[in-house]
Amino acid sequence: MKYFDRVLIANRGEIARRIIRTCKRLGIQTVSVYSEADAELPFVKEADEAVPIGQSQAKMSYLDIEKILDAAKQTNAQAIHPGYGFLSENPAFAKRCEEEGIVFIGPRSSMIQAMGSKIEARRLMQAAGVPVVPGYDGKIDTVEEALRIAESLGYPLMLKASAGGGGIGMQLVSSAEELQKVYSSTIQRANSYFGDGTVFLEKFIENPRHIEVQVVCDHHGNAIHLFERECSVQRRNQKVIEESPSPFLTGEDRRKLCETAVQGIKNIGYTNVGTMEFIFGNDHSFYFLEMNTRLQVEHPVTEAVTGLDLVELQLKIAAGEQLAIKQEDVKQNGHAVESRLYAEDPLTYFPSPGKINRLTFPGQDVRLDFAVVEGNTVSPFYDPMIGKIITHGSTREEALQKMERSLTELDVDGITTNLPLLIQVLQNRDFQQGNYTTQLLNKMGNGGIGIVKG
């Protein structure tokens, strides 16, 4: 089914190519928008039409709402897919789409607004009966107020930006002295990155696991989950390797977690695809962290184990169609793993832009979602992730073996990447046994990077 005649993709790189693939399969024409830095990238050439929208800096191109809307009107696009990052969770952009009569492929702007505030999201989930990390849900105006609240909650705590995301705007504090020291700088950082300096306090869960649930809801009251993704391999609070199912969950854990996620989204009347993120303690207790109101980077592992196309589901729901699948139709088939390839130094995590002189892909039994081809230049202007490697097997062991083989066969010359780090995680005994938390890379040494060099 077609759903739309023409869709504009307000994004770049691998996610733009990913959306184009599904649209082509469905007979939907696509429009790419691109900055000066991206003119030679594959996503520009693969779309049916491409519109330049400005200079390389994101705020002068991919974050310019009016330029993107102008491109949509100029090309007669009926809908806009925002991908992830950039404007995908910007309620002002979704609202402008609504005002212009262009379908925003995602939830309505008021829902993005509500769930984009971590404080408001915590309140909504508590009202829905979803457990949240113990903490203070009000706006904290002064360091003296923060100190009083912290004293009542007890240290260690996380001082968090309400509008934060991507691991930015979080600060661990273990004492009143530390809280006093970082309070103002955390607010300044939140203002700088998110334009909102509101902060709040949560209890710090030590040595946790990060597990999320993919949810899908239509406009007809149907809501289902597509099971969980384990995302605990992280560097600086940003995901590196994801897998599904989680090796940590029991069947009963999984049932409770997924039912809780669906309970939460039904209660708030969510629509389109989204992700409920949870944090797990060693005792298997779990708490709601936040909701991402968009397609996730790691959505391919869910597609691999369920056989569903999440971009098609997004298009279908945005077109007002009813979900054709029921919860009992969704099965977890085998095991899937995704590795994120970053153009960055695995020792320092600093981006490593430059020209890719050689790019050799692995041969078989692997899905490759890449932004670049050989000869492309990785720009310093955007996130350094250049591709994703996804493997699937009938068992976790088989999926991991395929991943290790694929990473070993992958060859990138001309830029520095985190490929050595990915291989070493795959070879780590704790990871292989599924016995790991968000502290895995730290346990491997110096944030996981000490063992890489040489």
TrEMBL record:
Q: What is the enzyme's class at the highest EC level?
A: ligase
* UniProt superkingdom: Bacteria
Q: Does Ligase count among this protein's keywords? A: yes
Keywords from the named record: ATP-binding, Biotin, Ligase, Nucleotide-binding
Q: Record's InterPro entries?
A: ATP-grasp, BC-like_N, Biotin_carboxylase_complex, Biotin_carboxylation_dom, Biotin_COase_C, CPAse_ATP-bd, PreATP-grasp_dom_sf, Rudment_hybrid_motif
Q: Enumerate the GO terms in the molecular function aspect.
A: acetyl-CoA carboxylase activity
ATP-grasp domain mapped to chain residues: 122-319
Where does the Biotin carboxylation domain lie?
3-446
Keyword Ligase in record = yes
Pfam family of the protein (one): CPSase_L_D2
Give the EC number: 6.3.4.14
Tell me the protein's name: biotin carboxylase
